[in-house]
Amino acid sequence: MAVGAAPAGLDATVDGIPTDATTAAELFAVVDLLDGQPMLRRSLSDPSASVEDRSGLATRLLGGRVSAATLAVLTEAVKASWNSGADMVAGLERQAVRLSLLDAQRTGDIDRVSDELHTLGLTIDSNPELAGTLRNQTYPVDAKQELIDRLIADKVHPVTRALAARTVRTRRRNYARTVGEILEMAADLAGEKIAKVTVARPLDEARLARLRRALEAQAGGPVALQVEVDPSVLGGINVALGDDVFEATVAARLDQVRRQLITS
Fold first, then answer.
1. Predicted structure pTM score
2. Residue 208 CB: number of other CB atoms within 10 A?
3. What is the DSSP string of the chain?
4. Where are the domains of the chain?
5. Is the per-residue pLDDT at 180 higher than 90?
6. What is the 3-class SS of 159-216, one letter each residue?
7. How far apart are CA 235 and CA 34, in angstroms?
8. The domain defined by 193-263 carries CATH number 3.30.70
């Protein structure tokens, strides 16, 4: 799943369409349909065809088969200018991801979904066998999705479960990078900046709250914490907030001393 960028104005246009919880699921189904129909996706993104022709084709294809909201999103997408049919399909999937996250935001669950996706990404990264299986281009998509579903089962929010299943499509990039892009989109929708925090030991709620307040003062606005526990940092904390990196770990200080000894 390549989240990527949308043509200018498409996000705002789609956000103006009255969607509901089923719209994202239907868009994902449309993406799967177009994935298997190269001629159709080329026709829907053909720059030599008029906007009316492309939107008319979309209506003839799916009118009456999907909800009015889904059809409206599709027709707005085919009206946009794309470099290729594959880019258009990726753009449609991006809208499905955004609508999934917006649905979680409407119900007040976007922070939970972000936390669950982040935790799932860390779990996969820490399991080389599982990560290797998800990267294996010859391993069936359905089998990959079953692996993820068994891992999370009914323990997570439905939006988390749906997005986790989408991230293992074989035509996509690695799982961790895709999850990272989804988390960036979630933070953007919530008006937050992401702070990637690495610590040697888990932080309790009080320390997390103090850290969040300090980082929000630094960032000048809301901050979403993504915490990773890594014993190799040997105490202290490492924080990446945008282009700024704040490091106060024993490992970092030892490395600094080592470099000074080498250069002295």
1. 0.83
2. 15
3. -------TTHHHHHHTS---HHHHHHHHHHHHHHHT-HHHHHHHH-TTS-HHHHHHHHHHHHTTTS-HHHHHHHHHHHHS--SSHHHHHHHHHHHHHHHHHHHHHHTT-HHHHHHHHHHHHHHHHT-HHHHHHHH-TTS-HHHHHHHHHHHHTTSS-HHHHHHHHHTT-TTS--HHHHHHHHHHHHHHHTT-EEEEEEESSPPPHHHHHHHHHHHHHHHTS-EEEEEEE-GGG-SEEEEEETTEEEEEEHHHHHHHHHHHHHH-
4. 1-106, 108-191, 193-263
5. no
6. HHHHHHHHCCCCCCCCHHHHHHHHHHHHHHHCCCEEEEEEECCCCCHHHHHHHHHHHH
7. 50
8. no
Would you place residue 246 in the very low, low, confident or very high pLDDT band (cuts 50, 70, 90)? confident
CA-based nearest residue to 226, from 74, 122, 87, 94: 122
* CA gap 126, 228 in Å, rounded: 11
Taking only the tens place, the pLDDT of each residue in 108-157 is 999 999 999 999 988 888 888 988 888 888 888 889 989 998 888 788 99
Q: What are the φ/ψ torsions at residue 137 (nearest 5 degrees)?
A: -70, -15
Residue 37's nearest CA partner among 95, 89, 83 is: 89
Q: Which of 75-79, 137-141, 200-204 has the highest mean pLDDT?
A: 75-79
